[in-house]
Amino acid sequence: MKLAGPDDPPKPMFILVPGFWLGAWAWAKVAGRLRVAGHDVEAVTLPGLAERAAPRADVTLADHVAAVAALVAQRGPGVILVGHSGAGSVIYAVTDRLPDQVRRAVYVDSGPLPDGTAIDPYLGPDVAEIPLPAWAELKAAGTSLAGLGRQRRADFRRQAVPHPAGPARDRLRLTGTRRRDVPVTMITSSHRPADVARLAKQGHPYFAELTELPVSYFDLPTGHWPMLSRPAALAAALLQTATV
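Above: the chain's sequence. Below: its structure in token form.
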């Protein structure tokens, strides 16, 4: 193994943004492996998700974007920005704001939403939060639980926090075009790369933007939460993104 020398360029930093109901805790096993490989890592807990008692009624998508953008501005340029699931819209908005600060955007079973779209625009204005649904309800909605055994599911539910409704209801606002210069890696866990590419060409709202982006794919077969079901494999995939 070649040791890093004083003249070697610094390894890029990872900022890991979790999806619904999750905090920084969800990335623990992935972040540990990235740090062992010599990378600086910041795992994010988004506003309203620090604890069950946290206020959520007034949290907006803009709040989530601002929190991540502040980290990127502080730690960039050269950040590898990783978003899982519902955080895809957050990191895409950050690349729109700060395209020069992001070396690569990585979507983990996620995708970049187009301007003007929302994850769930039909949520009523009186809904303040979205609790973690029952497992059967998630499966019925098409969310893969592959790789999550009984104990992992129990741990997940014990640590999960209701997600603020605002970030799901709010429409994404993008203002520039230079976000399309930021390289993208799609780590596909509950879909296969060919299926995602096909959906992008068909205009699926979660993936249509990929047709405008410099995108590569990494196939990681498991369920929707690879940081919990296959953390070592996910860390290995992220390490690969740091070498291109």
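The chain has a mean pLDDT of 95.
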